[in-house]
Amino acid sequence: MTVSARLRQRTTAPDASYQELCSVDSPARSPEEVGPGPENELMLQQLEIYAKEFTRYYWERRRLEKELRDQVEELRLSRQRIVAVEEALRKEIAELLHGRVQTKLVVVWHRLGQCIDLLTTDMTKAKALLPQIRDEIDQIRERDVRQAAHLLHPSVIQIGVLPAVQTLISAYKDYFQIAVNADPQFVQMDNPLDNRIQEEARLIIYRVLEEGLSNIHRHARATAVDINLSVPTDDSLNIAIADNGVGFDVSHTTPGLGLVSIADRVGAGGGAWSIQSAVTCGTRLIVSLPLTATGPGRKSQGLSSRTRVA
Ligand SMILES: Nc1ncnc2c1ncn2[C@@H]1O[C@H](COP(=O)(O)OP(=O)(O)OP(=O)(O)O)[C@@H](O)[C@H]1O
Ligand SMILES: [Mg+2]
Predict the structure, then answer these.
(1) Is 222 close to ligand 1, i.e. is its CB under 6 Å away?
(2) How far apart (Å, rounded) are the C-alpha atoms in residues 206 and 268?
(3) Residue 207 CA, ligand 2 centroid: distance in Å
(4) For the residues 11-28, what does the mean pLDDT come to?
(5) Hey, what long-range contacts does 43-50 have (CB within 8 A, 24 or more apart)?
(6) Which of 208, 219, 287 for mutating ligand 1's site (highest number of atoms within 8 Å of CB)?
(7) 261 C-alpha vs ligand 2 centroid, how far in Å?
């Protein structure tokens, strides 16, 4: 067998030909030109080293190319999901404005008409009706318009995470008990006068808790919920929301837009998330975010068999 054939046999890269290997750092003469002897053996050993290096680089390049293709595909899917989530949000706001706000405004408009008629026929009744109409308008402003504004952007996060959490949980106080625990470092960082948690990170935390609470309300039948906010290391934040509800089989549940949007938001912030649940054992949603949010997406780590990450 020729030297080049022996060499080809020792490399696993399909296109790592002898010529390519020699061209990397070509010796002056080929092993065939040198002929048998110690010099040839030395050259062969050198070439073998080149061949191994070349093979390693070849497979490493293939691996990186695949990784890049996967990332581009993931990015494409993520954009699709973001569009779907935005569309769902628009639909919700449209339903809120059209269904609730408009219907209530029509009712108020009719009552005002009644009031105008009463002004000439029964002033006492008209006077009694006016405060009721004012209360109804106030309710529309306070509940429905505020809710639509919150869906678009929760301005309260400009103050801090904790005030925003208080606003969020107030909507659920009639359904389950909620305990909020923030470690002292978190409280210090979330100082409204000099908030050291970036606004992007605050918005992610808000949206995660918003979806977590909405899921508990809709699916969990829980009586108690714990929200934990902590700063486990100098450069990361942890958010955990746990309920004592019915739980669900994570591995047999297709995530809806809610969990998908959590995955996308947390991924876009450079964080990781996981959901742990089992039937009758409640559910725990955990998110970890870098303090300097908004890096490239990163997959979750350290997951148990009952945990799934979308
Ligand atoms: N805290 C929870 N307790 C029980 N089941 C849950 C909980 N959170 C999520 N689930 C289950 O996970 C599923 C997926 O949740 P996800 O938020 O992605 O979708 P969804 O709430 O069904 O719809 P939406 O897109 O409106 O959020 C839910 O349908 C539910 O079965
Ligand atoms: Mg949901």
Answers:
(1) no
(2) 15
(3) 11
(4) 49
(5) 44/3, 44/6, 44/7, 47/7, 47/21, 47/22, 48/7, 48/10, 50/21, 50/22, 50/24, 50/25
(6) 219
(7) 9
Any ligand 1 atom below 6 A from CB of 176: no
Predicted confidence (pLDDT) per residue in 94-143, tens digit: 888 888 899 999 999 999 999 999 999 999 999 999 999 999 999 998 88
Q: Among candidates 208, 214, 218, 212, which has minimal Cα distance to 272? A: 208
Tens of pLDDT, residues 56-69: 999 999 999 999 99
Decide whether any atom of ligand 1 lies within 6 Å of the 164 Cβ. no
The strand pair at 307-308 and 236-243 is best described as unpaired
Rounded to whole angstroms, how far apart are CA atoms 146 and 154?
9
Ligand 2 centre from 210 Cα, in Å?
9
**Residue type (1 letter), 242:** A
The pTM assigned to this predicted structure is 0.69
- Answer whether 247's CB lies under 8 Å from 278's CB: yes
Partners of 274 in beta bridges: 286
User: Please, what is the Cα angle at 142 between 242 and 145, to 5 degrees?
Assistant: 90
Q: Residue 208 C-alpha to ligand 1 middle, in angstroms? A: 13
- Take residue 89 and report the two structure tokens written for it: 């949000």
Nearest ligand to the C-alpha atom of residue 278: 1
Q: What is the dihedral of CA 127, 133, 137, 140, to 10 degrees?
A: 160
Torsion angle, CA of 143/146/148/152, rounded to 10 degrees?
Answer: -150
Q: Quote the Cα angle for 220-225-228, to 5°.
A: 130
Q: Dihedral sign, CA of 40, 41, 44, 46?
A: negative
The answer, yes or no, to whether any atom of ligand 1 lies below 6 A from the CB of 243, is yes
Give how far Cα 162 sits from Cα of 155, 241, 274, 288, Å: 13, 14, 22, 17
Decide: 259 in ligand 1 pocket, CB within 6 A.
yes
